[in-house]
Amino acid sequence: MTLVQMQPRTASATPAHGTVADAMDTTGLRVCDDMTVEVALSVMAGARTGHLLVCDDSGLCTGLVTQDQLTAVRDSSAYTDRVQLRDVLGDRGPFTSPATAMAEAQHAMRYRRLEALPVVDEHGSALGVLALALAR
Fold first, then answer.
1. What CA–CA distances, in Å, run from 74 to 48, 92, 121?
2. What is the CATH number of the domain that holds 130?
3. How many domains does the chain have?
4. Rounded to the nearest 10 degrees, what angle do helices 37-47 and 67-75 cross at?
5. For the chain, give me the number of helices (H) and strands (E)?
6. Quick one: pLDDT band at residue 133, thresholds 50, 70, 90?
7. Res. 12: pLDDT tops 70
8. What is the reported pTM?
9. Domain that holds residue 58
10. Is there a contact between 64 and 129 (Cβ–Cβ < 8 Å)?
11. Is the keyword Transmembrane helix assigned to this protein (predicted)?
12. In the predicted model, what is the mean pLDDT of the chain?
């Protein structure tokens, strides 16, 4: 089964200082890790988004995939139409907590050259995404 879940939009504006919880976007799509790359790209195109939060069967966040990442996988010589998101993700992470200071999260994202970072609770459930464009 392939899950796509929408989350309500956060009402707060992005502050100059504060925590990740103040700036994260909770509107992002969540999909199950058994979704194929081709379907994920279609979901992204339909939702006009550049990334998807990926969760396992138990609802735990396993990572985030970007349109650029999935396009590169699809265009590779090893690609088949059976490649699932779990095959693309590899190791879990990186993630951040909603309590993380914005300055720390921004630094980590720039250091790792991440455009977006999943925000998870203490149990590993996805709460939202911190995008670098939101974090400035």
1. 19, 21, 31
2. 3.10.580.10
3. 1
4. 140
5. 6, 6
6. low
7. no
8. 0.78
9. 4-8+18-135
10. yes
11. no
12. 84
Going by C-alpha positions, the residue among 29, 27, 25, 62 that lies closest to residue 43 is 29
Q: Which residue has the tokens 């992204």?
A: 44
Per-residue HEC secondary structure of the chain comes to CCCEECCCCCCCCCCCCCEHHHHCECCCCEEECCCEHHHHHHHHHHHCCCEEEEECCCCEEEEEEEHHHHHHHHHCCCCCCCCEHHHHHCCCCCCECCCCEHHHHHHHHHHHCCCEEEEECCCCEEEEEEEHHHHC
Type of residue found at 39: V
Residue 6 has pLDDT above 60, yes or no: no
Q: What is the mean pLDDT of residues 92-98?
A: 85
- 27, 7 contact by CB (below 8 A): yes
Residue 77 main-chain phi, psi, to 5 deg = -70, -20
